[in-house]
Design brief:
With 163 residues, the chain is α+β, with helices and mostly antiparallel strands. It folds into two domains: 61 residues, no CATH class; 82 residues, no CATH class. Helices cover 25% and strands 29% of the residues. The protein has three helices and ten strands; from the N terminus they run H-E-H-E-E-E-E-E-E-E-H-E-E. A hairpin with a 5-residue loop joins strand 3 and strand 4. The longest helix has 23 residues. The radius of gyration is 19 Å and the shape is globular.
């Protein structure tokens, strides 16, 4: 009997609260402030999907022969009619992937394309819940903040922002 051992494709790791807080704080200071100024309103800080949606997407990826997900950063168009409150804000697009071995011995995690009803298209998910503008309890308080830490940003002559 021949046994084929499958190599693990794991690349991530579990991190703690301090790590998450530092990453988010750095993002707010280095990217979010500039993005928000550029679009003229608070840009999104997070995108939420239910565990059910993620599990269904993972199941479909496996069903179609894939083995991973790429998370692409994106932005809605400034005139996004489907959800005007999302217009101009950044988002995350999840794309199913399948690892391909390259001729040089390396590999590439290729975006998956599937054919449904005679139409071939990338296998992806988008339109999670953006915060802002929809931030759970904080939106109800009118603060527009996420529930992961608060960051004070010195914007020089433009003042201070609390995010």
């Amino acid at each position: 009997m021949i046994t084929i051992q499958k190599k693990s494709l794991r690349v991530g790791k579990y991190v703690d609260t301090a790590y998450v807080d530092a990453a988010i704080r750095n993002y707010k200071k280095e990217r979010w402030v500039h993005n928000s100024e550029h679009i003229g309103k608070e840009d999104s800080l997070s995108v939420w999907f239910s565990a059910e949606e993620i599990q269904e997407f993972l199941d479909k990826i496996k069903e179609y022969g894939g083995d991973g997900i790429k998370f692409y950063f994106g932005a809605y168009p400034a005139d996004f009619p489907e959800k005007p409150e999302y217009a101009g804000r950044q988002t995350i697009v999840l794309v199913g992937t399948k690892r391909k071995e390259m001729e040089n011995g390396g590999f590439a995690d290729k975006d998956m394309y599937i054919t449904r009803n005679g139409v071939t298209s990338i296998f992806s998910v988008n339109s999670g819940r953006l915060c802002p503008p929809i931030c759970g309890g904080f939106a109800a308080l009118g603060k527009g903040l996420t529930d992961v830490g608060v960051t004070i940003i010195d914007r020089g002559e433009k003042g201070v922002s609390v995010v």
